[in-house]
Records
---
Amino acid sequence: MDKIKIAIVGVGNCASSLIQGIHYYREKTPHNAIGLMHWEVGGYKPGDIEVVAAFDTDKRKVGIDVHEAIFSPPNCTAVFCSDLPKSGVAVQMGKVLDGFSEHMNDYDEKRTFVLADKPEPTEEEIVRILKDSGAEILLNYLPVGSEEATRFYAGCALKAGLALVNNIPVFIASDPEGPWARHFEEAGLPLIGDDIKAQLGATIIHRTLTDLFAKRGVKLERTYQLNTGGNTDFLNMLNQNRLASKKVSKTEAVQAVAAHRMDDDNIHVGPSDYVPWQNDNKVCFIRMEGKLFGDVPMNLELRLSVEDSPNSAGVAIDSIRCAKLALNRGRGGILEAPSAYFCKHPPRQFTDDEAFQMMEHFINSDGGDGD
């Protein structure tokens, strides 16, 4: 098989886990590969992915080899594959725009972004870098709240002729009033989004339990999901002004599978606090209150502790391979099945069982999207 050539915007913890995973699974076989949803997607294995371009704005990453940059501060995720060869791909200076929150300046350098003192590239320069690299797919790993920057890079992807996988809660694929779905369809370029859903994270567990309540006839009356973590994502989200789309994305993911939509006062889903010593470990607390047979009350409480970035990397690996399949098939525009299965805020919500069946159909068929 040919390589799947990708470009990455944001060389943070998620990019680190993804790149480590690409190399980690090259040494595995289907019999000893733990932690993947699919060993092959359309004949492509995880090790068939190659990073050919990367952008960041941190001075400790810009200008150095991407395989070194993924271990540079403030990255703090688990290291499970450290023996990486030089990639020959230097991290390029990216466009800042709203990709940096000013409150990050108030924290120690080992915990926060440190902006590089380099000229920002123009759109034309970024498009040229993407074209020259041979990249086919652009992955967006910008910080939460990077609305302007995400739209900037989506435009660069279009002009450079790349598919887009939007891993953050800025509404590109799922914006009903926006032009992006039409633009990507007209260009014949696949689009997957928005906001990556972790392999076994807070959202997928909360959705599964909410769906279970509905199927078992238990009325869900109130629920919350509280999350704490110590990576730069949680530090960035201390700025409440950057959280609007994130809260919508996570809340709608749960509301979409409830038997009846809950009043806003009875559901709270979102990031809660930054705890530095947790590093990339995310701790989630879920509480669900309901009534079952005879209107008798019940409640459920759950605590989840998981390394945040590896939890998303296996999903990203499948998203990349689905985008490549669509490119091979000449499919442009929103990929509904991958978006529904891999993302919290797709253009259309389905139950996870429905989305799984759609995904399997998408992978194993020659063309259809799995409707």
---
Amino acid sequence: MSFKATIIRHQAMIESLLTLEPQVSALAKRIKTCVEQGNKVLFFGNGGSASDAQHLAAEFVVRYYKDRRPYGAIALTTDTSILTAHSNDYDFNTVFDRQIEALGKQGDIAIGLSTSGNSGNVINGIKTAKQQGIWTCAFTGLGGGELMHVADDCIAVPVSETARVQEGHILIGHWLCETLDDTDYYEV
């Protein structure tokens, strides 16, 4: 595969994101309200999606490009003691459930990332969040998988190639940070 071919596929993915603008804009408004009310965003996923969850939580808490007060956010993928103890004592398919039960509350937002939309522990985490009255959103790839039917909203990057889906997720995440940084509420 040539470098040019990869760039062309990347460009096609970026252009496909324009269809998601109404959904992503609505999510930005929901997140803004969430953090203005002193609540937080819980991010979680596996593998590359776990890295994206951590990346976005860091951008929310530290900053994106503007010096501002921190936005409440937690990546449920960062505490190795919790991840390994829960997986050992219970089941990896419920590794996010327990953290959501402990850390989540009504008014928070849970965002589960899964390129296929079929990751069992992400599906279970979304279900647990909904049971606690937490609004949920899934970031997935083409079709949305099972998460399309479980989450309150599903932002499905309309491509099937895993790498392009992940690139779409982080681009959407960065735009969320950028638009939140552009609000007057959190400027320091």
